[in-house]
Amino acid sequence: MIKKKKIAVFIIIFVFLLIGTVFLLNFTNYSFVKSRAVNYLCDKYDADKDEFELVDYLHSGFHEESDGEWVDFINWHDFSFEFKYKNKSFFVNRYKGEFYDDYQIDDIEKWCTEWLKQNVDENIVFIGLDSETLIKYYSENNRISNKTSIGRNNITSFIEKCMLISVSNFSVYVYYDDNDTVNNNSTSYKNVELEMKSVFKKVDKVPLASSSRKSVEIERIKNENGMWKTYYF
């Protein structure tokens, strides 16, 4: 009986040590988290592990940030990875324990732009998304798994959801060709704003950015706090 109790205690201690080790690795060990990120990508894109080439990564940790005025504070930022798959580089973030990637971002922007030109205003030239937009789209939508690809056929619901996200986070901008003056008082701005509100009736604030060009340049950068984003200018 005593021997059985000792074995039971040993098993319990072993289990707790194992759980503790996994927990620690999950927050501190790059190789362990990278392996989990690759498994996530394999499941989502039905690919083999060796198809994903690691380009760069940012380790998890605490980073000092500022609100842009006087206040500095410390924030925790999780692991971020840059992979190459089918000759295309993209980013993978871990957010609240789940992985999210922006491999599809170029196609999604193209489909969104086509839809907006056809259904809202032909002067719209581009819809700008960033990595964080996709994270919020998945994490704030209980009906969609983070391993579900976004297709052209559900782009309408995607745009509407992103419009609602952008009201509070300003992570989506719709660029349009403004031949008047590049400010919020131009005729083009008011027309596009009204048309957007008419199509997306739940949206009160339209994140528009006027442009006198027919294209928008894209720059992908790794910022100091560890988030991966796409910037438009």
Task: Outline the structure in words.
The chain is built from six helices and eleven strands. By secondary structure, the chain is an alpha+beta fold. The strands form four sheets. It has a four-stranded antiparallel sheet, with helices on both faces. A three-stranded mixed sheet has the order 7-8-9. It has a two-stranded antiparallel sheet with strand order 2-3. A hairpin with a 5-residue loop joins strand 10 and strand 11. Helix 3 crosses helix 5. The longest helix is centred in the N-terminal third of the chain and has 27 residues.
Largest sheet: 4 strands, antiparallel
Mean of all residue-level pLDDT scores: 78
Structural class: alpha+beta
The 3D shape can be described as: elongated
The string of secondary-structure elements, in order, is: HHEEEEEEHEHHEHEEE
Q: Which strand order do you get reading across the main beta sheet?
A: 1-4-5-6
Portion of residues in beta strands equals 25-35%
Uncertain segments are none
Tell me the number of helical segments per DSSP (H or I, 4 or more residues long).
Answer: 6
Number of strands: 11
- Report how far apart the termini are: 73 Å
- In angstroms, what is the radius of gyration? 22 Å
**Helix fraction?**
40-55%
